[in-house]
Structures are given as structure tokens and as C-alpha cells.
Amino acid sequence: MPPPAVFQTVAAFSRRLLIAPETAPDDHRLRPLLSLSLSPPPPPPPPSEVLKEKDAKVAPLTHKEEVGRATWMLLHTIAAQFPDEPTRQQKRDAKELMALISRLYPCKECADHFKEVLKANPVQAGSQAEFSQWMCYVHNVVNRSLGKTIFPCQRVNARWGKLDCPERSCDLEGANDIMPNR
Ligand SMILES: Cc1cc2nc3c(=O)[nH]c(=O)nc-3n(C[C@H](O)[C@H](O)[C@H](O)COP(=O)(O)OP(=O)(O)OC[C@H]3O[C@@H](n4cnc5c(N)ncnc54)[C@H](O)[C@@H]3O)c2cc1C
């Protein structure tokens, strides 16, 4: 015998409240802990549909803002991990990295603007502190041009500190380390 109409209404309402409308029904993170559903759960979708839904959720970065945030995260993290006493090669690498970003950054107007920023502010990578302060400075130049808040560079180590890797396994070797200067 089907459940009384009042229960069906409550169950339908609870599903609408507890599961975000744009959420796929199999997204366990957003499923309610307690569902009032009286009907058995729908059968799982065929594997091909699951793939399509997952693909949609991990769509490639397409927005300028997302690419920007991801790039700044990488650049500030590289600067935070940069050796206190870099080798000549590491100093060259830092300059080359920034030059490559200014040529290959996937937003032409951003790349062109960043070339100008680099011309006016040549890379300073004589030490970890110098490189991370320089990175903060040029990020602020971009922030200013976009009307964004200026970041206080004295707080850059608090925002982008050394990675917490076991036994400092993320640290790069520098001129001061066992490996000789390249
Ligand atoms: C090289 C480069 C050039 C770009 N040029 C352009 C452009 O010309 N036009 C455009 O529209 N977009 C450009 N972008 C993207 C833009 O800078 C932002 O990344 C994007 O708009 C998203 O901004 P956001 O406010 O989320 O934070 P973001 O600016 O991406 O910053 C990410 C996080 O870094 C921290 N942060 C902010 N400022 C600093 C700083 N000075 N030092 C250290 N940490 C800081 C904050 O915690 C912030 O949340 C560029 C990105 C890069 C990497």
C-alpha cells in the first residue's frame, strides 16, 4: 500500500530542503544525514553518466581569476621555498621563470602587462627573503592596476610560509648546502 499523501509531501519537501538543487544526487558531501524519504533510493546511474558528472565537477580552470590565483599560489610558494643562499643557476632560473610567465601566461593582456611590470621591476632573487619580497611587490603592482587591495608585504611569510614537509624534504638545496654551486 502506498504511504499516505501527507508523508509523501513531507518527504518531497525534505528532499528539496536538504539536497541543493544543482547537486548531483550521488554527491555524498551534500547529502542529508537523515533523509525522510519513504521511497527506496533511485538506482545508481550507469558508469558513463557518473563519468560525465565527475568530469563536469573537475572541469579545467577556465576563468582568468582562477588561473591567476593558482599561478600566484605557485609563484609565492616557489619564493617561500627558495634557498636563503641560491646558486647562480637558481638565480638565473628565478629570472627565467618570471620571463616565461610573462610570455606564456594564458591571458594575453595579463602577459603583456606583466612584461611591463618586469621591465620596470627586474627580478630580485639574491636570497629567499629578497625573492619573496620582490614577488609580493610585483603582485601588488598587478593588484593596484586591477583596483585590488594592497597586500602588506611584511606579512608575506605568514601567508606563504615554508611548506610543512617531513624532514624539510621540500627545501631546495642552495649555495650553502652540501651540493656545490652549479
Ligand atoms: C603574472 C600575473 C599577471 C596577471 N595580470 C592580470 C591582468 O593584467 N589582468 C587581470 O584581470 N588579471 C591578471 N592576473 C590575475 C589577477 O592577478 C588575480 O590572480 C585574479 O584577479 C584573482 O584575484 P584574487 O583577488 O582572487 O587574488 P589574487 O590576486 O589571485 O591573490 C591570491 C591570494 O594571494 C594573496 N595575495 C594578494 N596579494 C598578494 C601580494 N602582493 N603578496 C603576497 N600575497 C598576496 C591573497 O591572500 C590572495 O587571496 C594576473 C595574474 C598573474 C599571476
From TrEMBL:
It is an enzyme of class 1 (oxidoreductase). GO terms for cellular component: mitochondrion. Residues 39-48 have a biased composition (Pro residues). It catalyses: 2 R'C(R)SH + O2 = R'C(R)S-S(R)CR' + H2O2. Its EC number is 1.8.3.2. Residues 32-53 are annotated as: Disordered. It comes from the Eukaryota. Residues 59-160 form the ERV/ALR sulfhydryl oxidase domain. GO terms for molecular function: flavin adenine dinucleotide binding; flavin-dependent sulfhydryl oxidase activity. Keywords: Disulfide bond, FAD, Flavoprotein, Oxidoreductase. The keyword Disulfide bond applies. Its cofactor is FAD. Gene3D superfamilies: ERV/ALR sulfhydryl oxidase domain. FAD-dependent sulfhydryl oxidase that catalyzes disulfide bond formation. Oxidizes thioredoxin in vitro. Required for the import and folding of small cysteine-containing proteins in the mitochondrial intermembrane space, and can act independently of the oxidoreductase MIA40. Can oxidize the cytochrome c oxidase assembly protein COX19, a typical substrate of MIA40. This is Sulfhydryl oxidase. It comes from Lolium multiflorum.
